[in-house]
Amino acid sequence: MLVYLLVISSELNSKSITPTSHLNEIFLERCNERVEAQNSDFNCVLYLQKFLEALNTTSEETVNYRDFLAMSDFSSIPDRTLFWSGVMDLSLKLAEIWNYNSLETTFTGGIMNQLTWCVKPINNSCPDWNHAIAMQTFWKNASLAFATQARGHITVVLGVNSGIAYNPSSLFARVEVPGIIPEYVTSVTIWPVIDSNFPEEVCGSGSLAVLETQLKQLNFPSVSCEDHPLVLNHRKCADNSENSNCTSLQLTEAMTVFQAEQAVGCSAFEECHVLQLDSANDQPSR
């Protein structure tokens, strides 16, 4: 996934973050790009004004995004909604390759993605994510708005975060799962992703079993979980420097690889490896 009030201690956390430089300019540039692509007359300057007004308060705890959220758009295409937790980079690449809609690909989510801010930075520093109430407040509201608009089939991609795939402290567990409206959903597919830094969790056990049970208790229809889904497999050749066709494949080529292997099998590859994620390179905030 990942999305502001101000009572900031004079002693900033050692893991404090730097607010995004030129945030206003970046905001307007991203907004105008989306407006142009949609051939819309949406007012990006007013939109930015509503965001800044939300931060014009005395503390992180009193920030109010009501007017900003009223102008926001978190809609997604039916059957293409993608929820994620612990694997932001992979999820965004899947969204790009397979035309899924994650929160970060929506109009507002795309504008705000990976921006950092707070009400009153101290020495050009903002609280770390665990204490960034202003950012947390926005992304909680954004996550809920995105979840309530999910329609048809939904896909869930879960990476191991804090040793478990379905982390009860994540925004997905706390906000999105309760926010999805089961009556508007036709089916749910869960894809767990291997993380070499933690023991593997498989469908039907551990936290994944908890998620499946919870979704069924909430009356979600047709809940399924798939271990090592092909779409997440990262195929590559075994070490064979003499074979000119044997090259290491990038994740962004996953769709092409998947299509090719469906057509001709894996005979062109001496060894097929399941994608393993380095959690240090992924954003675990959600």
User: Helix tally?
Assistant: 9
Order of helices and strands: HHHEHHHEHEHEEHE
Counting helices, strands and paired strands, the structural category is: alpha/beta
Q: What value does the average pLDDT take?
A: 79
DSSP E strands, number: 6
Spatial extent as radius of gyration: 20 Å
Largest sheet: 4 strands, parallel
Distance between the termini: 5 Å
Percentage beta strand:
5-15%
The helix content, as a percent range, equals 25-40%
**Poorly predicted spans:** 1-14, 233-285
Biggest sheet strand order reads 1-2-3-4
Sum up the overall morphology in one term: globular
What does this entry look like structurally?
With 286 residues, the protein is an alpha/beta fold. Helices cover 34% and strands 10% of the residues. It is built from nine helices and six strands; from the N terminus they run αααβαααβαβαββαβ. The chain has helices at residues 23-38, 44-55, 66-70, 88-98, 107-112, 133-148, 171-179, 206-217, 254-264; strands at residues 81-85, 152-158, 185-192, 223-225, 233-235, 272-274. The strands form two sheets. It has a four-stranded parallel β-sheet with strand order 1-2-3-4, with helices on both faces. α6 packs parallel to α7 (171-179). The longest helix is centred in the first third of the chain and has 16 residues, at 23-38. It is globular and about 45 Å long. The termini are close together. Residues 1-14 and 233-285 have low confidence and may be disordered.
